[in-house]
Write a structure and sequence with these properties.
Layout (H helix, E strand, L loop, with lengths): L2 H23 L3 H14 L4 H19 L5 H4 L2 H35 L17 H10 L2 H21 L2 H8 L2 H8 L4 E6 L9 E6 L6 H16 L2 H13 L14 E2 L15 E2 L2 E2 L6 E2 L3 H4 L18 H7 L7 E2 H21 L1
Parallel strand pairs: 3-6
Antiparallel strand pairs: 1-2, 2-7, 4-5
Helix pairs in contact: 1-5, 2-3, 2-5, 3-5, 5-7, 6-7, 7-10, 7-13
């Protein structure tokens, strides 16, 4: 057996091991969210992994909202499953594409060997090869993060976002429009601003125009800027991620308002307001926000389809573009919760 044959077999074995590890960690939103964090804590130069962890946390909260306090009151029951498919498919596909890149980098770091030629057998776009090669030499975390943001949003563009089912059943639905109008599509980053604070603070973004890939890329870059832009706050955010396991329930960050335990009084009758600013009205039960394991069973996915998205060098210029979206804070989030409550009350009153 020649040296080249041995090298080829070793490469094939590594690709198989990475695929196996990816499939195991990609079981559901909770397992993939934890995998991102575990990788980041071991390889903190790969900033994207922490960003992905936080975005994936939000994906889980959005999934459980579909079985929580409010959405079942304003959404047709038959629309809930397609919305879950959309959220889960995007979450699954991004992990399916990105996590092998992370594991391959870990092997390159361990061995001191450039293995970027294995990105293609792992199904990764040719777009990413030069960025990983650059990163091995420069450790430019921001540039790699921006490249991964562009790549992953393009990866789901043809595989989910532009699918006729998504365009016709998700984006064109009343529920999707209502969620946008009521600011139910926020991405939040929790942290404790001061050690003595009883409650966590929040920053994040309202996500509008999701079907627009350039807007999704801007969302990713802006979140990255918020996450890593201020060192003191960044440390608090990492502390939150490390201390509070992701369950999918919004009680993960605001347990004074949300509970993962079912509330028997939740019905289709006219909704009764419960929020008073940052607190509950006296005597009101908490808002129901289930854990992922209680809301949804593991979902069996079809294989990732599609072809390499990269066809135009203009996307290299998009990597260089700065973030431009403004953030929200805890007060903005509370105001949006109150608007949602009023919207739910209005809808339940007229249906």
């Amino acid at each position: 057996m020649t040296d080249s044959t041995v090298t080829k077999i070793a490469a094939q074995n590594l690709v198989a091991q990475i695929r196996q590890a990816t499939a195991k960690a990609n079981r559901n939103n909770v397992t993939r969210t934890q995998a991102y964090l575990a990788f980041y804590l071991e390889h903190q130069e790969v900033h994207w992994a922490l960003l992905a962890h936080l975005v994936s946390r939000n994906g889980g909260w959005n999934m459980t909202d579909l079985k929580g306090e409010w959405l079942p009151l304003i959404m047709d029951a038959q629309a809930i499953e397609p919305f879950f498919w959309f959220l889960e498919r995007c979450n699954w596909l991004i992990f399916h594409d990105a996590y092998p890149q992370l594991l391959l980098y870990a092997e390159m770091k361990r061995t001191g060997t450039d293995l970027t030629k294995l990105l293609a057998p792992l199904g990764v776009s040719v777009f990413m090869q030069s960025y990983w090669q650059e990163f091995l030499a420069s450790r430019d975390s921001a540039r790699l993060t921006h490249a991964l943001i562009v790549n992953e949003q393009q990866y789901i563009e043809q595989r989910v976002v532009q699918k006729p089912f998504t365009l016709n059943r998700i984006f064109a639905s009343f529920a999707f429009v209502a969620q946008s109008a009521l600011s139910m599509n926020q991405v939040l980053i929790p942290y404790k601003a001061h050690p003595t604070d009883r409650r966590l603070s929040l920053i994040g973004l309202n996500v509008h125009h999701f079907p627009d890939v350039r807007n999704r890329i801007q969302v990713g870059k802006s979140l990255y800027q918020q996450l890593f832009g201020e060192p003191f706050r960044f440390e608090k955010m990492v502390s939150y991620c490390s201390r509070i396991p992701h369950t999918g329930s919004r009680a993960d960050y605001w347990p004074h308002l949300f509970t993962p335990h079912p509330i028997p009084s939740t019905t289709k009758d006219e909704y009764q307001l419960r929020l008073d600013g940052h607190d509950l009205l006296e005597g009101s039960p908490k808002l129901y926000s289930p854990r992922l394991q209680d809301a949804w069973a593991d979902y069996g996915h079809d294989p990732a389809d599609g072809v390499d998205w990269f066809r135009d060098d203009k996307w290299h210029e998009v990597v260089k573009e700065p973030a431009s979206l403004s953030s929200i804070d805890s007060d903005s989030y509370v105001r949006s919760l109150q608007w949602i409550e009023y919207g739910v009350k209005l809808v339940t009153a007229i249906t």
